From TrEMBL:
Protein name from the UniProt record: DAACS family dicarboxylate amino acid sodium (Na+) or proton (H+) symporter
Keyword match Membrane: yes
GO BP term, pick one: dicarboxylic acid transport
Bilayer topology annotation: Multi-pass membrane protein
The species this protein was found in: Apilactobacillus ozensis DSM 23829 = JCM 17196
Domain of life: Bacteria
GO cellular component: plasma membrane
Molecular function via GO: symporter activity
Keywords: Cell membrane, Membrane, Symport, Transmembrane, Transmembrane helix, Transport
Keyword set includes Cell cycle: no
Length: 435
């Protein structure tokens, strides 16, 4: 018997089981659900989990900006041609606008077909405090016009933008810095070599941080459930379920159709970025997935210059999951309050959402802030948003994952359209990496 046990132990050591990072994150997600349910309203457990989750997110935030600056500057310097950059930039922004508009329209179509608001009695629901969102909305709405948005893209002090994490001014500076580096020719090689080394160091650090991501995921999902409880979902379960179904349709049908137009399958892309999508879903943070997403798409075959430009820009301007949620939530609240929206009203809603979602890009809690700025135009009282604030975190997980998938698809589309995609790398890419 003892010999058998020894033999089994030796066999286990010989066949050392090594779970992929995606599997580890999924296990962390399940453990977080269990811990959140067990420690519901337990202040000590909530504090511990909140602290662990915050530390993980801060570790990610620590490396995001160095990666964006180094990768984008080197990528733009390698493009060199300002005409080519203008073509790529114009194509990228046009694609972003088209996809987010389709996402808004799909949300409205699903809301009109299934009428989620008809099943809700707003007077029976318990509201949640949204004071912080109202304050943010008031400060953001003061500079949400197109001209103000363009002005705010230009940093007066890039170091101030870096310290505040304001992504678009950082991107604009990096574009000009990269073009300037290319313009001085051989003298600029020392800069590109240095920044290339910086990006490699940051990706190495990313790998280290990802080793603790299952703990961060467990803590973040755990604290959400411990604070709100599964019971928070029950009254609004139909709305949450419909939102997720709409997002799945958008990914498989609309994104799938775009993928087929450019010669690949959406299922292939989902396999490639499954770890990043699960990480984005469980943390409800696009930042958490951004560094690894950039690295993954480069390894899959998209050129560094395309990846470094499209993904950080999409992080602010291509939020397909958020667009679906905003249109569906606006229609849901109108229905809940018995407000009939004509076709004209809904077309107006599409236009308003297109403007407000871009005007408030980068604002903390942007999806909810956009709703605050939008629902008043269709007659929904601001207090109506208190009813869905409580479940916003649950929906945020799904929309963040869709945002990451959408930006990955955009990278492939732009890369293939510019012939900046390496098919040899694609063939050699392992969709089931061992992390």
């Amino acid at each position: 018997m003892f010999n058998n046990i020894k033999h089994f132990g030796g066999l286990c050591r010989m066949r050392k089981i090594k779970l992929s990072l995606g599997a580890q994150i999924f296990i962390g997600l399940i453990l977080g659900i269990i811990l959140g349910t067990v420690f519901y309203k337990n202040e000590t457990a909530i504090t511990v989990m909140q602290s662990l989750g915050t530390m993980f997110i801060r570790l990610i935030q620590m490396i995001v900006i160095p990666i964006v600056i180094s990768c984008l500057t080197v990528g733009i310097a390698n493009i060199g041609d300002i005409k080519k950059l203008g073509r790529i930039g114009g194509k990228t922004l046009l694609y972003f606008e088209l996809m987010t508009t389709l996402a808004i329209i799909l949300g409205l179509i699903m809301g009109n077909i299934f009428h989620p608001g008809d099943f809700i009695n707003v007077h029976a629901l318990k509201g949640t405090d949204i004071t912080k969102y109202i304050t943010t909305a008031k400060s953001a709405s003061g500079h949400s016009g197109i001209l103000d948005t363009l002005i705010n893209l230009i940093p007066t002090n890039v170091f101030s933008s870096i310290s505040s994490g304001d992504m678009m001014p950082i991107i604009l500076f990096s574009v000009f810095f990269g073009l300037g580096t290319a313009a001085i020719g051989e003298k600029g090689k020392v800069i590109t070599d240095f920044l290339e080394a910086v990006s490699q160091v940051m990706f190495k650090v990313t790998g280290w941080i990802m080793k603790v991501s299952p703990i961060g995921v467990c803590a973040l999902i755990g604290v959400t459930l411990a604070e709100l409880g599964i019971s928070a979902l029950i009254p609004l379960g139909y709305f949450v379920g419909l939102t997720y179904v709409t997002m799945i349709i958008f990914v498989l049908v609309i994104m799938g159709g775009v993928a087929r137009l450019f010669g690949f399958r959406i299922t292939t892309l989902l396999k490639v970025i499954k770890e990043e999508a699960v990480l984005a879903f469980s943390t409800a943070s696009s930042e958490a997935a951004l560094p690894k997403n950039i690295d993954r798409m480069q390894k899959f075959g998209v050129s560094n210059s395309i990846v470094s430009f499209v993904i950080p820009t999409g992080y602010t301007f291509n939020l397909d999951g958020s667009a679906i949620y905003q249109s569906l939530a606006a229609l849901f609240l109108a229905q809940a309050y018995g407000i009939h929206l004509t076709l004209g009203h809904q077309i107006t809603l599409v236009v308003v959402l297109m403007i407000t979602s871009k005007g408030m890009a980068g604002v903390p809690g942007a999806s909810f802030v956009v709703l605050l700025a939008t629902v008043s135009t269709i007659g929904v009282p601001m207090s109506g948003l208190t009813f869905i604030a409580g479940i916003d975190r649950f929906v945020d997980m799904g929309r963040t994952a869709v945002n990451v998938i959408g930006n990955s698809l955009a990278t492939l589309v732009i890369g293939k359209s510019e012939n900046e995609f390496d098919h040899e790398k694609e063939k050699q890419f392992d969709v089931n990496p061992k992390s």
